[in-house]
Specification:
alpha+beta
Length: about 150
């Protein structure tokens, strides 16, 4: 009886574990490519300022490219429970600023967002959360440049 109960328990555990998993949901990449009416130096400074204030550590790859590590999330004493039970997301940003003319520049923002359902699942590409979205980052950059 105990062996049958163990086998049944193990089978139910396996079924439960795989029942929650499903194929990843396809989504569009979160990329914006725009021309801004500001010199490239001002745009780079605004991008660095907005990303730093948003919790990202910004690194300069070369004269045109900026990249970040994963965004620093606000930590609290109960975060482990929240992440374990409900999952979490993380994001990083790649930006390229190239001069289009003396008074304008081209900005390409790519936000890479990953999510997971709980502590025992792996990170998967996910649709970007609104506060970290490329549209929102562009809005903040335009505000920093005082462009309407």
């Amino acid at each position: 009886m105990t062996r049958t109960l163990r086998v049944l328990s193990l089978a139910l555990l396996v079924i439960w574990a795989f029942a929650c998993a499903g194929p990843p949901i396809p989504h569009e990449p979160d990329v914006i490519d725009v021309t801004l009416p500001a010199p490239a130096d001002r745009v780079k400074t605004a991008v660095m300022q907005v990303l730093t204030e948003g919790g990202y550590a910004v690194e300069r790859k070369d004269d045109e490219s900026l990249t970040t590590g994963y965004r620093e999330e606000i930590s609290g004493p109960w975060d482990w429970l929240l992440r374990w039970r409900f999952g979490t997301g993380r994001s990083r940003v790649e930006a390229m600023v190239t001069p289009a003319s003396e008074q304008s520049s081209r900005l390409r923002l790519n936000v890479l967002y990953e999510g997971k359902d709980g502590i025992f699942t792996r990170w998967e590409d996910s649709p970007t959360a609104l506060p970290q979205s490329a549209e929102n980052q562009l809005r903040l950059i335009k505000n920093a440049l005082q462009i309407l």
